[in-house]
Write a structure and sequence with these properties.
By secondary structure, this protein is α/β, with parallel strands linked by helices. It has 15 helices and twelve strands. The longest helix is centred in the middle third of the chain and has 16 residues.
């Protein structure tokens, strides 16, 4: 099905609404059948609390679209025919993406290479060499345009195809010293972001960025990383998404080897060269099933029921089905209540059917 211009516009508008992340976006589409109807229904959904969870004005969305046009960027909306298939299979998928460069790379088989920003010369050489070999074998290389391992991976794969996923807007060149790399990525590869045009990356944006890096890829290779690092977050997200996780072993004397070595202890695939990656890809494996249709509920949610559901929430993420069992109500009704609670800032909807205060 081809999305109409009005539906694409409404999906961007819905995606830019405060407190509506990918989970709430997916549930609103499931509940109302289209973003056009969901945008129309939002004022009634939040009227009880007086919360200001309302879509941005049409003029604000027009300004974002105009900024994208001036930049020569392309908007991909969930539901578009050329929206990346690997991302569309995520539960939930990113609602909208801005791209610059060769957007067709987003639908080619890809492998992510990530690692330390303060990387060793040897680690950068490994990342660059792996990227070159993966490109020659027909894989697009995905990374985050950060210093160190990311930059080396992009450099190695520029001639064959590489994708940089940014935390800020698709025009946010960070770090500044990668301005030349960014220009070459736009010319030869692809730059992609979930954030609005003009947005500058904040700390909260990088987990979302990492989820797209792993989501676009068949597997994630960690070259160097300390135990507490974004690279290990990307590896965890990849495992949750059913992707392969590879780790390049390193010396126990180097703190940057602690991350990959720990991943190996946890069952990651040893990666000493492209042969290890290709061998894993030829082995039968099961990706996570594509998400089912979001739960739909057409009834009215009473205030008393909202409070019963809210009382069961805690700071610890809890499966939605567990809350449904505790409250003794159908999952669809509980999902609708949780959606309304999230819109007024009383609940946070998380990937994997989890919810927390």
């Amino acid at each position: 099905m081809t999305l109409s211009a009005a539906e694409r516009f409404a999906r961007l508008r819905l995606a830019r609404t405060d407190r509506i992340g990918p989970v709430a976006f997916s549930q609103l589409l499931g509940r109302y059948g289209s973003a056009v109807r969901a945008v129309e229904a939002l004022p009634d959904l939040v009227r009880k609390s007086g919360a200001a969870t309302l879509p941005p004005s049409s003029e604000a969305v027009e300004r974002e679209l105009a900024a994208g046009d001036r930049l020569g960027a392309r908007l991909l909306v969930l539901g578009d025919a050329d929206y990346p298939q690997m991302l569309a299979e995520l539960d939930p998928a990113p609602p909208v993406l801005w791209t610059r460069g060769r957007a067709a790379l987003l639908n080619r088989p890809a492998v992510a290479i990530v690692g330390a920003r303060i990387a060793s010369a040897g680690g950068q050489r490994i990342a660059r060499g792996l990227a070159q070999q993966l490109g020659q074998a027909g894989h697009v290389v995905v990374s985050g345009m950060a210093r160190g391992i990311d930059g080396a991976a992009h450099e190695g794969a520029l001639p064959t195809g590489t994708v940089a996923v940014l935390g800020g807007g698709v025009d946010d060149i960070y770090p500044p010293e990668h301005a030349d790399l960014y220009a070459r990525l736009v010319d030869q590869g692809c730059v992609v972001s979930e954030s609005p045009i003009g947005a500058r990356a904040q700390a909260r944006d990088f987990p979302r960025r990492n989820r797209i890096i792993s989501g676009l890829s068949r597997g994630v290779v960690v070259v160097e990383a300390e135990i507490r690092s974004g690279s290990l977050i990307t590896a965890r997200l990849a495992a949750e998404q059913g992707r392969d996780v590879f780790a390049v072993p390193g010396s126990p004397l180097d703190p940057r080897a602690r991350g990959p070595n720990e991943l190996l202890r946890q069952g990651a695939i040893l990666c000493e060269g492209i042969e290890d990656i290709e061998r894993a890809f030829t082995t039968l494996r099961t990706l996570r099933e594509p998400p089912s249709d979001p739960l739909a509920y057409d009834g009215e949610i009473e205030d008393a029921f909202l409070e019963r559901v809210a009382a069961l929430l805690s700071p610890t993420p809890t499966p939605r089905d567990e809350i449904a069992r505790a409250v003794g109500a159908p999952s669809a009704q509980v999902a609708a209540a949780l959606l309304e609670l999230s819109l007024v800032g009383r609940a946070e909807l998380l990937p994997g059917g989890l919810v927390s205060l």
